[in-house]
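User: My instructor asked us to take a sequence, write out its structure as tokens, and then describe one feature of it. I'm not sure where to start. Here is the sequence I was given:
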Amino acid sequence: MTLEEQVKQIVGGILNTSPEHIRTEASLKDDLGATSLDRYTILMDIEDTFSLQLDDVPEEELEEKISTVADILEFLKERLS
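Assistant: Let's start with the prediction itself. The structure tokens for your sequence are:
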């Protein structure tokens, strides 16, 4: 499973949306209807799935940096490299 597929599966699972219907450019809030709690849950699942610690990233920065699925992918690529 690719990184993109994994992220879409996480997002889809939390937002009760089929991963196949999630576009990478989709806004978590505006297009997918994610609340701030949903976005927090997505980040926690990403932490668990990819064995990351995001405690060093300020919450406001995460809110700004991660507004689309593509943002999540870019953030993960940076953190995993």
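For the description part of your assignment, you could build on this observation: The radius of gyration is 11 Å. Try explaining in your own words what that tells you about the chain.
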